Amino acid sequence: MIDIQPWAPALTVIASIATTIYISWRIVLLLAPGLYRGMIKNNAISVDDFVGGPPSSTSAFKSWFLNRLNVGSRVAKKEGYPLKTEDSDKVPGLKVTSRNETGKEGVATNSNNPPVVVGTIRMGFGHHRIAYAATSWGLGEKKCGFLGLGGDDKDRETFFHDFLNIESEEAQLIKDMDKMYSKGSRLASELGGTVEKFWGSLTKSGDEDSLRCTYQFSEHMVPLINGLDKNSPIIASHSMVACAAVAAGFKNVINLVIDNHAQWFVVVPGCLNLVQGPSNYHSLLKMGVPEDQVQIAGHWIPRDLVEGIPDASARRTARRKAGKPLRIIIPVGGAGAQRKFIVSLVGALSGLVKEGRVQLFLNAGDHEHMKEAFVGALESNNMDYDKVIDMKGVQSFRERMLTE
User: How do 294-296 and 272-275 pair as beta strands?
Assistant: First the structure.
């Protein structure tokens, strides 16, 4: 009679489960390349050619699976939405695009030249800030032809084209994805420790697969930009906008690389990728980005700040010599990943603020949850504060600060 140990059945079950998982995974890897090829067969450009070759079976499955999570079985559309423009309520002379619900085709302009389009996606704070900085140069004096485009560009208009401003199912896809990212960033920041490190590893691993996923998602965003003049130069402050523009067939696309950490997912194939410094430039070249698709441009600074550097520096010098308070401006993005840190910083600086040695300018944009965090930090430290809630208030505040 065989004496069966009590643990033997459990070990058999575990071994069977492990074998089943292993065989299933091997089957998945065998199917992955075909699934991936089916996913990219109608793409306008090849990301694989840009990054140096096709993905491994594991990467192919990862790219296919993440795309299914993002868009499901949805088939990407191509036809652009009719658009209209309105005067910006924030920047004089700037035109803001939105969907034309009347269905009328084309965007009316006051120029014979196609507009310069600055494309963005309102995700967090940085993309919008960079986009507004870019528009300031389009709206400035154009003595030699804007961006070297040639011709008489004195009357060339500048459009602010935010994908989320085009009411559509595609815009909703972006909003849903952004909610997931923002929620994850805030939760990771609040929990800290291992969770924050794990989230950081996910968001910083912008490898070839990240670019594959970004571009594949952007194929679904083509209708958000396909209603614009194909002769317009597109300046993108979000890589997804640049990807969509390239996929839509725009030939003059500039991607303002938002991050100084060289990663595949911040660059875009088929366009000119502008970086802010030599370190990032050389790192991208070493990664394999084609030399004719990347150049150094400098930092994305609004025109009025650049032109005002001499006067601003003189005012700062005069303030310090007069012993006036040090001014610290702290802007925080919509994702709110740094909320915990900023709240602690406000508390740490509260003594200096009360002594009149420091002035804090906290910028939450229009993110309500960040404003609430700022107000809570100020009140818990018994600090007096003023609130600026609209652009009129911003201008008044600016004028007041220039005289104090």
Answer: parallel
